[in-house]
Amino acid sequence: MNKLNENVFESIKHYDEFDIEYWSARKLQKVLEYTEWRKFEGVIKKAMNSCKNSDYNVLEQFVDIDKLSKRNNNAQVIIKDYKLSRYACYLIAQNGDSRKKVIALAQTYFAVQTKKQGGTMPENLPTPKKSLKELEKIKWKRALSSLTIT
């Protein structure tokens, strides 16, 4: 990967319908220079254990999603992927192969971005006290309150 910088992580960031940021594990795998999914999934499993041991809800930080993928023969197969929170990405970076320069960059990027968000966890990231469903309710209430009835 040429000329690594934090923009590479910004370029693969997505927002869901509730304007909550997330990263695709499959895209992060490529950026972090893991050529095999099974090896990267091992890093994900370690990160999930760290998340669990930190008393965060693993299922909210690492949302299991399936995707359709085309093979060379045009056959479609379902492949595993994860919708990752910023915290999940941070944990993946912390559990990644520290010999890779891109891992050091990811560790720094996710730590700095978390700090910029105002502390140990970003404001819109689910925490043990603030579930994803609660965040969605808040966003819907804001959206509804901004509507004007004519």
The rounded distance between the terminal residues' Cα atoms is 54 Å
Helical residues, percent:
40-55%
Spatial arrangement of strands, main beta sheet: 1-2-4-3
Number of domains: 1
Record the SSE blueprint.
Elements: H1 7-11, E1 13-15, E2 21-24, H2 25-31, H3 37-53, H4 58-61, E3 62-70, E4 76-84, H5 86-95, H6 101-116, H7 132-145
Antiparallel strand pairs: 1-2, 2-4, 3-4
What does this entry look like structurally?
- The protein is an alpha+beta fold and 150 residues long.
- It has one domain.
- Helices cover 49% and strands 17% of the residues.
- The protein has helices at residues 7-11, 25-31, 37-53, 58-61, 86-95, 101-116, 132-145, and strands at residues 13-15, 21-24, 62-70, 76-84.
- The chain is globular.
- The model is unreliable at 121-129 (pLDDT under 50).
Question: Which descriptors would you attach to this protein?
Answer:
150 residues; alpha+beta; 4-stranded antiparallel beta sheet
Brief sketch in words of this structure:
With 150 residues, the chain is of the alpha+beta class. The protein has one domain (7-145).
